[in-house]
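QA checklist item 7 of 12: single-chain prediction sanity check.
[x] sequence parsed
[x] length recorded as 126
[x] structure emitted
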Amino acid sequence: MSDITPAVLAGGQLIQGYGGGNFRIAGNTHAGSVIILPEETISWDIGAYEDISPASFGAVTQTAGGVEVLLIGCGARMGMPRSDIRDYLKEFGIVPEWMDTGAACRTFNVLLSEDRAVAAALIAVE
């Protein structure tokens, strides 16, 4: 049997599971929505796509070392990309990618295994 687990650097925030309002990341369970930065995962006080504003991404824009791509997991369904958030993140050289939370989790793991400068803002799903 071949091992298909992506190779991730020590300390990498690999997403191991999601659902039931939780995430399992790097061996730890996180309740509710989260922002995953290159070296840590923090709680994100967002419960729905409509709650997102440019100010919601302060932790991402202040990340030392920078983030090039921000995956935004909008919940069970993809939300429409918003120009106010795109324009705000562009000021920091960050490209937002909007998708449902499941797709964002899978994409994050791929980009993390490629050692890309990626972060994710994920709305928890049941």
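[x] summary fact logged: Helices lie at 58-61, 83-90, 101-113.
[ ] second reviewer sign-off
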